[in-house]
Design brief:
The structure holds 2 protein chains of 2 kinds. Chain A is of the alpha/beta class. Helices cover 42% and strands 23% of the residues of chain A. Chain B is of the alpha+beta class. Chain B has a domain at 3-195: 2-Layer Sandwich (Threonyl-tRNA Synthetase, Chain A, domain 2), CATH 3.30.980. Chain B has helices spanning 13-17, 21-40, 71-83, 95-104, 108-114, 179-195, 197-203, 222-241, 255-261, 263-266, 296-305, 352-373, 398-415, 456-459, and strands at residues 3-4, 45-46, 56-61, 89-93, 123-128, 131-134, 148-158, 167-176, 207-208, 219-220, 245-246, 252-254, 275-277, 287-291, 315-324, 340-349, 378-383, 419-422, 432-438, 444-451, 463-465, 471-473. In chain B, the strands form 7 sheets. In chain B, strands 1-7-8-3-2 form a 5-stranded mixed sheet. In chain B, strands 18-17-19-20 form a 4-stranded mixed sheet, covered by helices on one side. In chain B, strands 4-5-6 form a 3-stranded antiparallel sheet. The longest helix of chain B is centred in the last third of the chain and has 22 residues, at 352-373. The chains are: A alpha/beta, B alpha+beta. The A-B interface holds A 1-4, 6-7, 9, 12-13, 15-16, 44, 64-65, 111 and B 192, 194-197, 200-201, 203-204, 206, 222-224, 226-227, 230-231, 234, 335, 372-375, 439-441, 443.
């Protein structure tokens, strides 16, 4: 199974399903809300608040084969959005928080992708 | 550096006659390799050079330590040999002539190899150019037929696979009909290396091995445990839907149970040696307890734990049991060959009339899994018994074997799945069907096995009440 997926597991199976990357300190609270919302639904989610540049944090998440990265900048925070990056697919754009979360939960539940 | 510890069995004449074109080509390429090595290192002592699943190898003994840096020079010399388009010519010698021939040339391994040839079989040599090799063949016609080859790696190998013998240097290589096939194979190898679960497992921190824990006993790190638990969850949901009931059984059992099941003695070499457990009461005999290598006997005991009626059939029991199997340390490989493993193991107890439906349902369940995992290609291998090994390799029930195999064959044909039938590969208690899937890199894995077991239930005295209230064997 590991070789079949070459370590790039589908969302439902991935050891690291989601990671939140807030751009700056101001976005940490907003990111934490998303984390606890997802945790409540048993999603394996982590939060990277290290001081590394956002590019470096994205690269790290990608080498660690995190399935979905959710980026929060000031713009996303103000609009109540999350910018989605998926492993192997790249930038998928910003969407409303509630839509992103319910999308993730639905995909995990139905084991799609 | 790997180290080969097993002796290769000399091929019988019959096996040689069945050698494929590719094997002939590869075996011939091994001769070309030896020709080239002798040109570059005339002192080299030769052992043998058979074809393998991936290509061929040749074992040498010489002072110079081969390294991949030598490959370019050796390959260039091999190229010359193929350009020279030498014919492979067969000749024979008597045993004494053959031994004298090699003794004169100081080829001591070859002298001993002459004696591997059974009495009555011709002692043949093949010559290409200046190179003469003790060899039963077969070969391609000319060295020029070898159009695409590559040396792969060098490894240490004990003479005849015995650690007490001198260590030889084994050069592995491969050969193909043409360059395109060779390149395709090399690319697939590279892709497989990238996908190697041992590499990914280390990088992603999925599992680890520890010397103190022991070889073949994987430790599942948190991220790997996620994988296992997610897969179990999937199986649990799928099986629940299909009417399976979950059970749990201990990892140990008394010797007696495995004697009843027939795993002792048939399967003894794959089980860990038993633990001797003394009873508190000194008058009672010492217990011999085995680690379970399979869940089946425990499940049979669950079947017989309560009186069963036909109304309960089919009864489908499932468990993710941890099993322990003794594998020789040289055969352990990552997670592919281990000594402890989780088996998603289910047993279906049904009447002969219910068999076809149950078998179909199991196949449908596989398809469901394959769809989720994106396995597009799969096939089945139907392993049947061999009538002349009844009572030795297989339980002695000629009629039951025939009936069961016919029943399975009918279902396979009817269901339209792609399957091949392999005689003399069944389990000792019944035919089995292995499900093979093909991964993206073209590799083939056996992902599941269905076994039809008609003999063991009888040995366990498993029975149920029929409508007429008389017990019937399963």
């Amino acid at each position: 199974m590991i070789e079949h997926y070459a370590g790039n597991f589908p969302l439902w199976l991935a050891p690291d399903q989601v990671r939140l990357l807030p751009f700056g300190d101001d976005q940490v609270e907003y990111a934490k809300e998303v984390v606890s919302e997802l945790r409540k639904h048993e999603v394996r989610v982590s939060l990277d608040t290290t001081s590394d540049k956002i590019g470096a944090r994205i690269r790290r998440a990608e080498t660690e084969k995190v399935h979905t990265i959710l980026l929060v900048g000031q713009r996303e925070q103000e609009a109540g959005n999350l910018a989605v990056r998926e492993h192997g697919k790249g930038d998928l754009g910003a969407k409303p928080k509630a839509e992103v979360i319910s999308n993730l939960l639905e995909r995990i539940k139905t084991r799609q992708g | 550096m790997e180290s080969a510890k097993h002796d290769v069995q000399r091929k019988t004449l019959e096996e040689r006659n069945q050698m494929s074109d590719l094997e002939r080509l590869r075996h011939s390429c091994a001769h070309v390799l030896a020709t080239a090595v002798l040109r570059l290192w005339p002192d080299a002592k030769l052992d043998i050079g058979p074809p393998t699943a991936e290509g061929f190898y040749y074992d040498f003994d010489l002072e110079h330590r081969f390294s991949p840096e030598d490959f370019e020079a050796i390959e260039a010399e091999m190229k010359k040999v193929t350009k020279e388009n030498q014919t492979f010519e067969r000749s024979t010698k008597t045993r004494e002539e053959a031994k004298a021939y090699y003794a004169e040339r100081g080829q001591n391994f070859k002298v001993e190899r002459v004696d591997d040839i059974p009495e009555g079989e011709e002692i043949s040599f093949y010559q290409n150019g200046e190179f003469v090799d003790l060899c039963a063949g077969p070969h391609v016609m000319r060295t020029g037929n070898i159009k695409a080859f590559k040396l792969l790696r060098v490894a240490a190998a004990y003479y005849r696979g015995n650690e007490k013998n001198p260590q030889l240097q084994r050069i592995y290589g491969t050969a193909f009909k043409n360059k395109t096939q060779l390149n395709e194979w090399l690319e697939a190898q590279e892709e497989a290396r990238k996908r190697d679960h041992r590499k990914i497992g280390r990088e992603m921190q999925l599992f680890a091995f520890d010397d103190d824990v022991g070889p073949g006993l994987p430790l599942w790190l948190p991220k790997g445990t996620v994988l296992i638990e997610e897969l179990e969850k999937l199986a649990k949901e799928t099986e629940f839907e299909a009417g399976y009931e979950r059970v749990r059984t201990p990892h140990l059992a008394r010797e007696n149970m495995y004697k009843t099941s027939g795993h002792l003695p048939y399967y003894a070499e794959s089980m860990f040696p038993p633990m001797e457990v003394k009873d508190d009461d000194p008058d009672k005999p010492t217990d011999r307890i085995y680690l379970k290598a399979m869940n089946c006997p425990h499940h049979h005991k669950i079947f017989s734990a309560v009186p069963r009626s036909y109304r309960e059939l089919p009864l489908r029991l499932a468990e993710y049991g941890t099993c322990y199997r003794y594998e020789r340390s040289g055969e352990l490989m990552g997670l592919m060959r281990v000594r402890s493993m989780q088996m998603n193991d289910a047993h279906i107890y049904c009447t002969p009339e219910q068999f076809a439906d149950e078998f179909r349902a199991v196949n449908e369940m596989y398809l469901k899994y394959f769809k989720i995992f994106g396995f597009e290609k799969y096939s089945m291998r139907f392993s049947t018994h061999s009538p002349d090994r009844l009572g030795d390799k297989y339980v002695d029930e000629a009629e039951l074997w025939k009936q069961t195999e016919n029943m399975v064959r009918d279902v396979l044909v009817e269901s339209g799945v792609d399957f091949e039938e392999v005689p003399d590969e069944a389990a000792f208690y019944g035919p089995k069907i292995d499900v093979q899937v093909y991964s993206i890199s073209g590799r083939e894995f056996t992902i599941a096995t269905n076994q039809v077991d008609f003999a063991v239930p009888k040995r366990f005295g498993l029975e149920y009440k029929t409508r007429e209230n008389t017990p019937e064997m399963l």
